[in-house]
């Protein structure tokens, strides 16, 4: 395909994208396909000679779309939102064209420098303490990671390197394995799966300061890190940073704050108090690719001391050296992350922040929060239902009063009907339905329609129970 | 921005992208900017009210482009190629619009199933042993990772989990830390940085089978994994799988084969022999996002036993459960990787494979290899220069005969002149220049021009030395 054909096909694709998103409400939000549906529709091997573009576009509607869960449908209320906006898509087109791999400053200075400045912009929108910003001469700064999981892992490895060096300096004979055996990381029991997923490490639950002290006092263990979660996946609950932060600070334990979903809300002054205590943290992370209109992937991570990251990951083969790297002025982001390669993702932030403006972004967050409260209000009107967790942002946890089996049956009916899509969670042994405001285009009418639909299915279910 | 404005701006962006790539040859391949150039050109905070799209596009030329290293310029011969093609860019637009997060089958069946089938297509193009393919009922299969680093780490963690379980089954009292202390992974001394970067582990160099045996025989150590590299970053050398493979197989040591750059060439029958011995491997990885026209990121990884990965990473909070997951028919790719989230990256593979056809992809690889041999031929004509490593694929390692300082000075002149861009490597204590065929649009004329340019600078340098 040459540039002329790309001009033609690219414009057709722009229209296809706009048509898809404008018409998404009419598509069934959750697909009907069964596992294994796709393989028989596609040849077993790649074609020897090229297919035509028309063939492919026809196959998108015939083969792909019937198997798509439409995350951007206004009837999608599952998981958490994943961001989608036109400005971000335009920026992604530009990112693809430039196609630089920004592992070092020299590999594309604009890619590195725009990222540093955009992370400062975003940090200021959140009123992050100045210590987290790069500025002209700061010791901290921000980096775009691919996911909150990667940010948590990066923070954990940085903390481990720091603790190991400190202990080995104090006791030069100490082996790395002997250090490793003592280390323990702490997280809330509602922390997302990403926090728990790192094989080979030990992660303990803290609920009370008591537990935390006990682990330390046993002497067999050494606190490596505390991961505090702001806005858990199950019910959007918040760890109390003002409680755990000072303890970490006093004990010299690395505090990582993960606000993957909730972080976007902190750009609104009325939600900023939820971030109070972040001043005690060593690292902080949230995902603009969830709720801040920057398409996946864009996970924003800040650290107070960038040398904590570069100390853990520094990697300097000669083919990556460049003349400026020891100047102290530049950032080589490969030392801040696990992969070597990285795309020009800050373009998405730049386009979105400029084309929405802070006011536009705040209005977007507020609209979602308002819609979740509207849903909460509707649920509270119906005595058959109960709200299961405080509604703070865009997530409502609710259930039919009564046994879990009743709620499992309700969810089964909801998702089988295919009109809306929800997923459940467990809260204190209760099976609970999660209603998350997700789509950029969801309006009050969709929320009310979803509620009427749920009420109708609940009435059917309760009627059937009586028979 | 609404759909109508996106239709307009999207089409303008398509033209901008095509103009950029058609005109890239006229842009200076490596930028003139100094570290810190960008911050003064941009306000310190995001705008409160929206900027216009015109403002942004003007700033792209004014602020971004002067700081871009143009990886797709036909005068870019640095690092290794990073893929860029129009079909992949079209697929990325579609991927952005669908915007699903494919962590489970249910989160978007098409996203998961197309990936499995595309990885089978690609595996067959490479004539991978059937054991690596998913097929209808295979135990193996492929997954798209973000980078070769992630694939290496995933393989390492899977191997560690497997070894630990085996040892703990044999000796139930054995602690994880006691196992960890014994484990050692092996890699070639020319393995890429990604292999060496994992803090907390021990990676030893193997050169000879002797070293490898010695490590095992000491009894203090236990071989965890061997990472063999096909096509190293420095000089594109190849570990001998037929030598190391049978040893690993006999000893039950996990063999991971990393062919990040070279792997794409194996779609050509004449280069397939370089992959011989992969039948002994447990996992294999290469990056279509380097040399197979699939824009970053798309790192293809296969395993023979998918349960080795899912055993290490399985993570099942209730909000990610779905009705099909225990059917044995489906794949939840979140168990195959580190992050939870993932984009619909297989669309890029599908578009590229179909719009180029296998024949077109092979022709592309062959053209690059031919151009590197053309450059090698030119270098060999000039008695002042020497070739420093066998030219197998698209990389030529060369230098001026004489001291390293002379070659450092030559590289300095080359990169200061800004007409072409190269990076160096060290081979056996020699400072060597790497000439990598990178751009999709590079032709014989560019290679010859680059060589004349290098010769001219070398003549100047040698002249200055004599003065």
Automatic annotation (TrEMBL), chains A, B:
MF-aspect GO terms: aromatic-L-amino-acid decarboxylase activity; pyridoxal phosphate binding
Signal peptide: none
EC number: 4.1.1.28
InterPro entries the record matches: Aromatic_deC (IPR010977), PyrdxlP-dep_de-COase (IPR002129), PyrdxlP-dep_Trfase (IPR015424), PyrdxlP-dep_Trfase_major (IPR015421), PyrdxlP-dep_Trfase_small (IPR015422), Pyridoxal-P_BS (IPR021115)
Superkingdom per UniProt: Eukaryota
Pathway the protein acts in: Catecholamine biosynthesis; dopamine biosynthesis; dopamine from L-tyrosine: step 2/2
EC class name: lyase
Modified sites of kind N6-(pyridoxal phosphate)lysine: 290
Essential cofactor(s): pyridoxal 5'-phosphate
Gene3D superfamilies named among the record's database cross-references: Aspartate Aminotransferase, domain 1, dopa decarboxylase, N-terminal domain, Type I PLP-dependent aspartate aminotransferase-like (Major domain)
Entry-linked PANTHER family: AROMATIC-L-AMINO-ACID DECARBOXYLASE (PTHR11999:SF167), GROUP II PYRIDOXAL-5-PHOSPHATE DECARBOXYLASE (PTHR11999)
Protein name: Aromatic-L-amino-acid decarboxylase
The organism of origin for this protein: Camelus dromedarius
């Amino acid at each position: 395909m040459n540039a002329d054909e790309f001009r033609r096909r690219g414009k057709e694709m722009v229209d296809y994208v706009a048509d898809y998103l404008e018409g998404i409400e009419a598509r069934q939000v959750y697909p009907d396909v069964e596992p294994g549906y796709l393989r028989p529709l596609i040849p077993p091997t790649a074609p020897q000679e090229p297919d035509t573009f028309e063939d492919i576009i026809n196959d998108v509607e015939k083969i792909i779309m019937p198997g798509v869960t439409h995350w951007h449908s206004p009837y999608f209320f599952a998981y958490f939102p994943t961001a989608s906006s036109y400005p971000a898509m335009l920026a992604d087109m530009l990112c693809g064209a430039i196609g630089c791999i920004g592992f070092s400053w020299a590999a594309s200075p604009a890619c590195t420098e725009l990222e540093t400045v955009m992370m400062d912009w975003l940090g200021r929108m959140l009123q992050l303490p100045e210590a987290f910003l790069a500025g002209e001469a700061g010791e901290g700064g921000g980096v775009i990671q691919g996911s909150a999981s990667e940010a948590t892992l990066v923070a954990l490895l940085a903390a481990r390197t720091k603790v190991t060096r400190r202990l080995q300096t104090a006791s030069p004979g100490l082996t790395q394995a002997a250090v490793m055996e003592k280390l323990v990381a702490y997280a809330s029991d509602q922390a997302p799966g990403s926090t728990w997923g790192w094989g080979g490490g030990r992660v303990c639950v803290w609920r009370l300061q008591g537990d935390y002290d006990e682990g330390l006092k046993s002497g067999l263990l050494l606190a490596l890190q505390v991961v505090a979660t702001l806005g858990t996946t199950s019910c959007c609950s918040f760890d109390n940073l003002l409680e755990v932060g000072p303890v970490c600070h006093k004990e010299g334990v690395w505090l990582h704050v993960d606000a993957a979903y909730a972080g976007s809300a902190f750009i609104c002054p009325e939600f900023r108090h939820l971030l109070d205590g972040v001043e005690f943290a060593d690292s902080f992370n949230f995902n603009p690719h969830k709720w801040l209109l920057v398409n996946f992937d864009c996970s924003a991570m800040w650290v107070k001391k960038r040398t904590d990251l570069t100390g853990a990951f520094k990697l300097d083969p000669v083919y990556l050296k460049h003349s400026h790297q020891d100047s102290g002025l530049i950032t080589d982001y490969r030392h801040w992350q696990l992969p070597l390669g990285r795309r020009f993702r800050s373009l998405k932030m730049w386009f979105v922040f400029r084309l929405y403006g802070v006011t536009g972004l705040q209005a977007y967050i507020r609209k979602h929060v308002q819609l979740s409260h509207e849903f909460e209000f509707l649920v509270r009107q119906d005595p058959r239902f109960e709200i299961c967790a405080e509604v703070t942002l865009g997530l409502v946890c609710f259930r039919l009063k009564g046994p879990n089996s009743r709620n499992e049956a309700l969810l089964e009916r909801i998702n089988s009907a295919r009109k809306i899509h929800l997923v459940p969670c467990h809260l204190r042994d209760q099976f609970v339905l999660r209603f998350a405001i997700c789509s950029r285009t969801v309006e009050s009418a969709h929320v009310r329609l979803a509620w009427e639909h749920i009420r109708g299915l609940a009435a059917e279910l309760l009627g059937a129970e009586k028979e």
